[in-house]
UniProtKB/TrEMBL annotation:
Organism: Rhinopithecus roxellana (Golden snub-nosed monkey)
Subcellular location field: Endoplasmic reticulum
Gene Ontology BP annotations: developmental process; dopamine catabolic process; methylation; sensory perception of sound
Protein's name in the database: catechol O-methyltransferase
Reaction(s) the record says it catalyses: a catechol + S-adenosyl-L-methionine = a guaiacol + S-adenosyl-L-homocysteine + H(+)
Record flagged with keyword tRNA processing: no
Function: Catalyzes the O-methylation, and thereby the inactivation, of catecholamine neurotransmitters and catechol hormones. Required for auditory function. Component of the cochlear hair cell's mechanotransduction (MET) machinery. Involved in the assembly of the asymmetric tip-link MET complex. Required for transportation of TMC1 and TMC2 proteins into the mechanically sensitive stereocilia of the hair cells. The function in MET is independent of the enzymatic activity.
Amino acid sequence: QRSPGRQRVGVGTMSPAIALAFLPLVVTLLVRYRHYFRLLVGTVLLRSLRDCLSGLRIEERAFSYVLTHALPGDPGHILTTLDHWSSHYEYLSHMGPVKGQILMRLVEEKAPACVLELGTYCGYSTLLIAQALPPGGRLLTVERDPRTATVAEKLIRLAGFDEHTVELIVGSSEEVIPCLRTQYQLSRADLVLLIHRPRCYLRDLQLLEAHDLLPAGATVLADHVLFPGAPRFLQYAKSCGRYRCRLHHTGLPDFPAIKDGIAQLTYAGPG
């Protein structure tokens, strides 16, 4: 009969063997999902560290870079500067140029009199919409975080858009949507961009329907429907019978291997 001491040694000698057995699996997973790993490190770990060290959020650091490198009054140059910042310094988690071209093309094609954007963030997609608006067009953009909204407001005004063209509303979409008609004189939204939190897309789409803010023929665009994903929103849009649906397949900015998409819905009316 072996002593207890020898049993402990025997158990201990098995650990390296078990680790080596799992090593190929770990390496395979790291290689296969290396883009997601890089995204996790960049957007969570490194960003949190830089936030602590600088006392500034990433959108505030990006705006400081814009102030020293972009041309005031030139929204296109400001957008290019943000893209450069995101590619060479810190990933900004913004819409990016590929999705941006899709958005601008649709705004120019639809020529909406009024656009509603839910999720201003740093103001990147806001500038894309604003520079593609038809003459006299109006954009209302909603941002729930006051500190982020402050940065976006500065960026929008730096690009040369005044409050008559782009109005920024600070508040949660759930609270703002019911007030759009009475407080912000928005009787209808010809085009809506959902770019805030995918888990809120379905709720906010149904709020827009309930408050009769979508005219027949209105376009609803929803970003990030594949990553991180909005399955309930997509299922509702495809099954309720009130929308024609199209999916624009793209990748994430600076991470093209991570597949994402923009959903384009055309509202047929309440039915």
